[in-house]
Amino acid sequence: MSMKKVVARMKQNNKKAAFVLQLTAMVDMFTIMIVFLLKSYSTSAVQIAPHADLKLPYSSSYTHPVEALRLVVALDGIYVDDRKVVELTEGQIEKEVLDKSDSEFIRPLFEELDRHAKRSQEISEINVEHQFEGTVVMQADSRLNYEVLKKVMYTSSMAGYADMKLATMSP
């Protein structure tokens, strides 16, 4: 048999053969890749931007941020949702701000937190899906004295915000 006859026969056989593309394995592979990428990619709708000139403490533990009232304790003051409620002098609370009968109680902070709690409870009465949980996300400067933070946490719990989440930086 000559080479021309062999080539002609191969061309004729190729035309008769039906080529079927098997996509099942490829679809399975892409499905696994998509699931892996979606599981490894994490985003959060909650954005926590640190206050200006605030040095957050470092922590190796990680939990997803929650949507809650933002409480910032910086060296220059205490802020509730970006509104300054207490003036601090070099990270220290002025004695005039503290309650006379309870030296751990910060009156202006309590009044602001209580106002937010009452507003949240009023919303809860109108909207049954919204519940007041008493959660606050606290950004505290790592250079602050623990006594200041203790007074802030005590006052927050007295206002109904006993569930405190501390915002930290990852190393």
Number of domains: 2
- Summarize the amount of helix as a percent range: 25-40%
- Work out the number of β strands: 6
Strand content range: 15-25%
Average pLDDT rating: 82
What distance lies between the first and last C-alpha atoms, to the nearest angstrom? Answer: 77 Å
Count of DSSP H/I helices: 4
Shape: elongated
Structural class given helices, strands, pairing? alpha/beta
CATH class of the largest domain: Alpha Beta
Largest sheet: 6 strands, mixed
How would you describe this protein?
By secondary structure, the protein is an alpha/beta fold. It folds into two domains: 3-40, no CATH class; 69-166, Nucleotidyltransferase, domain 5. The chain is built from four helices and six strands, in the order ααββββαβαβ. The chain has helices at residues 3-16, 24-40, 107-126, 146-158, and strands at 69-73, 77-80, 83-89, 92-93, 135-140, 163-166. It has a six-stranded mixed beta sheet with strand order 4-3-2-1-5-6, covered by helices on one side. Strand 1 (69-73) and strand 2 (77-80) form a beta hairpin. Helix 3 (107-126) runs parallel beside helix 4. The protein is elongated.
